[in-house]
Amino acid sequence: MEYELVVVAKGSEVGEKAVKRALEIAKEDNIRTIYLLFVNDTDFFSKGGYVRLEKELEAGIENIGKVIMEKLEDVIKSSDNQIKVERVELKGKTAEEILRFVKENVVKTLIVPKEERGPIERSLIHGDIEPFFNEIKQYVNNFIIVE
Amino acid sequence: MKRVVWMFVFFVFVLTAYSQAATLRVGGVIKNEHGSAIDGVEVVILSNGKVLAKTETTRNGSYFIEIPIKQLKPTDIDIEFKKSTYETIHEPIRNILVSKLPNGETIYISSVNETMGRVTTPAFWIALIVLVMTFALISFEILHRTVAAIIGAGILLFVSYTIGIFNENYFVISFDEAVRAIDFNVILLLMGMMIIVGVMKKTGVFQWLAYKSYAMSKGNVFKLSIILMFVTAIVSAFLDNVTTMLLIAPVSIEIALMLNINPMSLLIPEVIASNMGGTATLIGDPPNIMIGSFAHLTFNQFLINLGDVIFLILIANVFVMKFFFGKEYKKGKVENVDKLLEKLREEYKITDAKLLKYCLFVLTFVIGLFVTHGFFHMEPSIAALVGAGLILILSGVDITEMMEKEVEWTTLVFFMMLFIIVEGSVQTGVIMMIASWVKDLAGNSLTLAIILIIWVSAFASAIIDNIPFTATMLPVVAYLTRTIPDAGNTLWWALSLGACLGGNGTLIGASANVVTAGISERAGYPITFKEFLKVGAPATIVSVAIGMVWLLLGG
Asked: Where is the domain boundary, B100, B116, B132?
């Protein structure tokens, strides 16, 4: 499948900035659909102790994803009501799933919001996309990081 | 005639032999320098270097030997006490009482009680290295904590049964001692509660509670934060903190996103309250389960001694959270409260009302048993097991599924291995050394001991896993409780408050913190180590200070 403009959906201010950047690109290139990509990633907490709650955790993060995408959709619609918003939901490890997505599909522009994270939380909480940036770039025409 | 003579000779021989028969009975108790009984001490009775009899001391350090000593002077007999990592004692048996039985038999009785001094053997260093290595592997998450603990316990037993067989100075722990060290009260209590929670979570009640908190707050974010803190604390007092946060945090994030506030302003107060709530009861936090089982403290003792101070700490922390997140709470706005409520009601409703009724009945029954377990002299694990059995029957859930998915075997194995590692340190004198250090610092002052235990535990728990820390501290606090005048159970409460509340100090201090940060990150709001520290450290200092003052005032 071909995706012209994809934004990785995050609920934070950086997430909103990423969507606004997508709106600018959509206007410049006359793109009519923005795809919001959310990864339901439960891969964290290696100490053990959440495996038995994975189903509940997955359901909880799915609901969070819905709210984030609704919020971002509102941002897009309030700026340009004509732009269509489509949702893409993936399940698995964030970086690996995004990489698989860009490998299996044709993605012209991918916008990734990047939050500030230290080494301790990175090693504990995972979900880091940064180490995969170079690999993702190979499969995307235009790779934009919003900080 | 010849036959009669022979019979006479035989009779005289038996009579003579009988009249000369004597028995030596020796018994006593062997203790270490801390006054604790030593089990497994080899007790040998010798005469001119020849072994006459052998036995071992029992778990309470006692031994008893009875041997016939015909043709031996009892004063020529020696006794020897031997155990690896202790100095061998070899001495003649003194203070012998002589008595004659009605049948003419002589009885020699002596009581030999000894205090054995420690020697630092290679086993001591092996146990110490394994203990430190396991702490490091777990704390820095180099290995999964269960793998780290299995490796640690495995090394201790392997060294004992290879090098230790040829040279007893390398013998750390016997297999029997290792098995005996596992506290099955802790293991079964954890398992029982995992089953109860496993069935209960199917009802959706925890998420429903978070939705209800929002409904009660009527859109006031500060009020919502307070309600969520108390709901989380109460749930955590009976369930484990990780489960509580995993189920409540996603709902809180959803609410925060819809209120346009940073989810951190709800999540950090919640997780801090969760760690506090767990401190209030015997079953709320693993360190309390271990303390309760080791020190034979009841559910009621925990609730009575810690419940009120935790309530005070929670109130104080409401203000701490207001200080840090007050501005964020003011930012919170939602255009249509009813619409949001409707959405949350739809998403987080009770999924199985009938099952919830069964669960609440069983939970009430189990809590009833916890409250009365001291009266029945019943271990709390029995209450949890009865509850687990009942809930399995009533809910009709698939037992295989429950055992495979709901019981965290990795956690249970982690506890078992940890008990073995700590016992290795007990057997070789590592723990005794730590206890002596603490005792030297505290002297006979209960005040100093409280301050030392509560702050050291809090600081350590903020950095390392509080479960291995508590396991190590149990024998240390037991020694201090025994030797410091009027200590009562105060030092146990100091350990509990320090070890549980210390987890709030840093992001890595408690498993629930990491889980919460993980869920928040997935929503695009990573909680960094620095951000958590900024709120967690002051909250911990305030909480531990209140706890300390409370204990110093007599709790």
From this structure: B116
Indicate whether B288 and B380 sit together in one domain: no
Which of 104-143 (B) contact A at CB < 8 A? 141
CA distance A19 to A87: 13
Q: Does residue A63 belong to the interface with chain B, where contact is any CB pair within 8 Å?
A: yes
Q: What is the pLDDT of residues B400-410, one digit of tens each?
A: 888 888 888 88
Please tell me whether residues B465 and B542 are part of one structural domain.
Answer: yes
Residues B315 and B234 in one domain: yes
DSSP state of A72: H
Chains A, B: CB contacts within 8 A come to 137
Q: Are residues B451 and B536 in the same domain?
A: yes
Which position has the token pair 């820390």? B469
Chain-chain contact of B254 with A15 (C-beta, under 8 angstroms):
no
Interatomic CA distance for residues B267 and B251, integer angstroms: 10
Contacts of B246 in chain A (CB under 8 A): 50, 53, 56-57, 60
Whether B221 maps to a domain, the answer reads: yes
Write down the pTM of the prediction: 0.84
- Are B272 and B149 contained in the same domain? no
What is the pLDDT averaged over residues B99-115? 89
Q: What is the ipTM of this complex?
A: 0.84
Distance from CA of B535 to the nearest CA of A (A): 16
Question: How far from B357 is each of B202, B351, B363, CA to CA, in Å?
Answer: 12, 12, 10
Domain that holds residue B315: 205-349+429-552
Asked if residue B134 belongs to a domain, the reply is no
Burial class (CB in 10 A: 0-12, 13-18, 19+), B115: middle
- CB within 8 Å: A48 and B251: no
Q: Do B340 and B256 reside in the same domain of the chain?
A: yes
pLDDT in tens, B14-37: 444 444 578 999 999 999 988 889
Please give the CATH topology (third level) of the domain spanning A2-146.
Answer: Rossmann fold (3.40.50)
Q: What is the mean pLDDT of residues A81-85?
A: 90
Residue A14: count other Cβ atoms within 10 Å of its Cβ.
18
When divided into structural domains, chain B yields a total of 3
Q: Tokens 């007092």 correspond to what residue?
A: B237
Note whether residue B3 is domain-resident. no
- Hey, is the C-beta of A115 within 8 angstroms of any chain B C-beta? yes
Q: Which of B402, B428, B454 is the last residue of a domain?
A: B428
* H helices present in B348-483, as ranges: 353-372, 380-395, 399-401, 409-428, 430-442, 446-463, 466-483
- The rounded distance, in Å, linking the Cα atoms of A92 and A44 is 11
- pLDDT bracket for residue B196 (50, 70, 90): very high
CATH number, domain at B73? Answer: 2.60.40.10
pLDDT score, position B12: 45
Over residues B247-257, the mean pLDDT reads: 89
In a domain, B130, yes or no: no
